[in-house]
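Protein 1 of 2
SEQ + STRUCT:
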Amino acid sequence: MPECALAHTWRAESGTVTPSVLMDWRVTVGAQLGRPALVLVCVAAGLAVFLSAVSLWRETRRRRAITILVLRLFAVGSCLLVALQPSVELGQVSLLPNHVAVLVDASRSMSVAPPDHGPSRAQRAAQIVAEAAPRFSEWERAGHRVEVYSFGEALATATAESLRAAPQGEATRMGEALSELRGRLAGRDVGGVILISDGIDTGRIARGPLDGETRRALEGLAAPVHTVFVGERELRDLSVAAVLTDDFAFVRTPIKLEALLRHTGYGDRQVEVTLAREGRLLDAKAVLLRGGSGQEKVSFDYTPMEPGNFVFEVKTPVLAGEALESNNSQVFTMKVIRDRVRVLHVCGRPSWDERFLRSILRLNPNVDLVSFFILRTDNDELPLGANEMSLIPFPYQEIFDEQLRSFDLLIFHNFNYKPYWVEPYLPGVRDYIQSGGALAMIGGDLSFASGQYGESALRDVLPVDLTGIPRRGAARVFDRQLQAAFDLCGTQPPGDIAQPGPEGQ
């Protein structure tokens, strides 16, 4: 049924009607006429009144003319009432609460203060909410519901007191917060969303244009989203934005730790970036901050020497005038595990005991064996030229300099270092043992005193004292039994571990 545009609404003040119920009345037309017919009837009535007024224009008796015009208006009005059949409808309108959501960024970047040391972003956001409290109260008296949330990694309800606390969020995920808000307000009428942030999103919105999930969240809210920016247009800051590494590493396997630095306002300045493990400095690199703002990548080479869970920290110095000091370091954990025990076996000549030991180690699935044994020496007579033989030269530099620290155990099996240019690398072998590597020596006519190890750089790390024992002759051989004395606490020198026992023992 067509309706007239005349309407009026007021709030019921009666005690029998709740404040959320409104009384409404309106004038309606009861005639079963279409809109064109209604327009034609109203135009005809208006034309009749106009012609009647024109016909009475020349009437000299004004009182008589006015009386006739009033009677004709009454007649036209009566015809309209009969034709249109107007009526007044009264009704009650129940107002459903209209929700307004206020989302405040609570990530750590909101702790940034402007260069003039004014209020931080978080403090300015809390001030905005506090100043809007009277407006929010007015909205609630009008039937709306105002809900305040904070968001970082996730959405959480907030109060004026919680907004004044220091922000602790490790991320700013606006898209995810809007999706969670849509789920919380599902089935409710949302009047609008107010988003207060510095705009530094680290969630899915930061990866490019609005994704499908965020678009569906905005469409599901079916309400305008108003943004309030509390960042600064200019600031100075240096931060460790990310550490790029795996969660685990293998013992004695070199790895590369990479850190991403972001800087603003410190162009063409060099800073020192440090890597520490459990508070102990491992490495330091100088990095040049190029341009007014941007990001730089720094790499650290590190070889874990023992298994376990370790805490690492990449840190930059706090520069003068920095907006935020808490982002100058990144702490991360890494699990170091043992893949397989790597064994380097170096043998002076082929023998049955060498064959047995190499077979045992090779068949063990937990051992990664690299074995070298000498098949000829420079003093051997060769029927062919050296370039016509398939034997490879002994790679002394590669195994004792470049790859030594990748092994867990080094075995010298009846091996004399003198003829094979190994002596310059023995100090490195000693350092390898003192830093946690393992050494096993198997004797023979080329080892221990016969191999002149008592005169080498390894004399201080050997489990026996070779002082005074000659290379040749009967004096270098004990024909007596030995009594082993094990020093579990390591309080005695290595030479006291094995000593000749009394005669007959």
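Protein 2 of 2
SEQ + STRUCT:
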Amino acid sequence: MSLTDELLKAYEHQIEQLVLVPSSGGVFEVWLDEDLLYSKKATQRHAYAGEIRQLVEARIGPPAPPPD
């Protein structure tokens, strides 16, 4: 499952917008609002499986249940 799919599936009722911006030079960053949650350049490694979701959850809490 891709990172995009993972986040959209988990937070489908909370995500208002998800933007993917192509880059070069091995840059991979994940921002939430104005906060940098993860930077491959800063960590010098790829994110572990589930790591980005954990960072999102730490910032905004667990996914909300679907509306009734």
